[in-house]
Design goal:
432 residues, alpha/beta, UDP-n-acetylglucosamine1-carboxyvinyl-transferase, Chain, 2 domains, 4-stranded mixed β-sheet, 12 helices, 30% helix
């Protein structure tokens, strides 16, 4: 782990949001399934999305990076991969490409990823694909990667799947079902978590000419015989990553504006603007300029915040809670234990090292009223979002602190350190 030293400093200024990781994944996959050439402007080129680029190349698409624009030539007949598809640290890549691999006419595809990915659940998706006519297995028989998929196409039909583990399963089924031989109906049992990510999938499918009928978040019908149509698409800015910078302004007494955030594109983490406003920060969303501005407040309020639809906000909200004058309860977060790490447990442990009073529940995290923080070393445990948010909290401490895990930031935000410094943050990379 590469360690950084974060010094007390104020974040102020204006930057452009990094491109959305969620949209980039989906657009690249759909462009690869569209016979012809699609042009993707403002894509996120990071470790997670590059894993998707490579997986799409493995099944026959060509992906050319032309200075900030991807030119993708899709294929009407998917190829059998020459090698194992490596999702690296990307759960989105693993889950969507598992479903897409079922569309290969014949042969087998094998998908895996790093140690974190090989711990993440896959069985609900495998069962659903099997019900729709595919054949797929967990190589170790434990419902986790490596995954083996036999090609042959999806028959379609009706399937029921639990929604309380990951919305990525639903997105994967929707994307692949558009090319099934028969109409596909997907019933989501239990409460679907991370619902706005399904909205992202449906919005992107619509841009590529694919229709889906829906009844709320519990039922979807995908007509058979559809084709993805090549298109041009400009990827919007990413709220997940931008929230870290906006939170930094609140934590340090600054004023940050982030450009390129378009409210017309659904994203789960638009909820951040409502949450931080409830806590007492000054928030302005300029729809015309596509800019979000957050200014700090002398007082942050406590309260209860439901993150069931926006689990990626858990680290950001947890560090903001350390500055609140009242207790903050973050609820609906049980599925955050199934992310790159068990984010609930790690946040409870690491914030406690700072002297913050934290109570961990199965599906919740409560941060008690503010205490003076201690100087310490925070360990991100190889989780990119934890690394970035730990840096943000360090900027607002009296003496600063050290954070381990610099090498993880290129998973989703390669320019993170540069943007922090551009806004006035003081961070030093340490050799050991």
């Amino acid at each position: 782990m590469v360690k950084v030293r974060v010094y007390p400093s104020v974040l102020s200024g204006r930057i452009r949001a990094p491109p959305s990781k969620s949209y980039t994944h989906r657009v690249v996959v759909m462009a690869s399934l569209a016979y012809g050439i699609s042009k993707i402007e403002n894509p996120l080129v990071a470790r997670d999305t590059v894993a998707t680029f490579n997986a799409c190349k493995a099944i026959g698409a060509t992906v050319h990076d032309k200075s900030g624009m991807l030119e993708i030539s899709g294929t009407s007949t998917l190829s059998v991969p020459d090698d194992i598809m490596d999702a690296k640290n990307s759960g989105t890549t693993l889950r969507i490409m598992t479903a897409v691999s079922s569309l290969i006419p014949s042969g087998f595809a094998v998908l895996t990823g790093d140690s974190s990915i090989r711990r993440r659940p896959m069985q609900p998706l495998l069962d659903a694909l099997t019900a729709l006519g595919s054949e797929c297995w967990s190589a170790r028989g434990d419902g986790r990667a490596p995954i083996i998929v036999r090609g042959g196409g999806l028959e379609g039909g009706r399937v029921a799947i639990k929604g309380d583990v990951s919305s990525q399963f639903i997105s994967a089924l929707l994307i692949a079902s558009a090319m099934a031989k028969n109409e596909t109906s997907i019933e989501v049992m239990d409460n679907l978590v991370s619902r706005p990510y399904v909205d992202v999938t449906l919005e992107t499918m619509k841009k590529f000419g694919v229709k889906v009928q829906r009844d709320g978040y519990g039922f979807y019908k995908v007509p058979e015989g559809q084709e993805y149509v090549p298109t041009s698409f400009s990827v919007p800015g990413d709220l997940s990553s931008s929230a870290i910078m906006l939170a930094g302004a609140t934590l340090t007494g600054g004023h940050v504006s982030i450009e390129g955030l378009d409210p017309d594109f659904p994203q789960a983490d638009w909820a951040f603007t409502d949450f931080v406003k409830r806590m007492g920060a000054k928030v302005n969303v300029d729809r015309n300029a596509k800019t979000v501005t957050v200014s700090s407040s002398n007082k942050l309020n406590g309260g209860t915040f439901d993150l069931s639809d926006s689990p990626d906000l858990l680290p950001v909200m947890a560090v903001l809670a350390t500055k609140a004058k009242g207790d903050v309860s973050l609820v609906g977060i049980g599925h955050a234990r199934l992310k790159e790490t068990d984010r609930i447990s790690i946040l409870a442990h690491e914030l406690s090292k700072m002297g913050v009073l934290v109570k961990e529940g199965k599906d919740s995290l409560t941060i008690r009223s503010h205490r003076e923080v201690k100087k310490c070393v925070l360990d991100s445990h190889g989780d990119h979002r934890l690394f970035m948010t730990f840096c943000a909290i360090g900027l607002g401490t009296p003496e600063g602190l050290a954070v381990e895990g610099l090498e993880t930031s290129d998973i989703s935000y390669p320019n993170f350190i540069a943007d922090i410094q551009r806004l006035g943050g003081k961070i030093e990379v340490l050799n050991n």
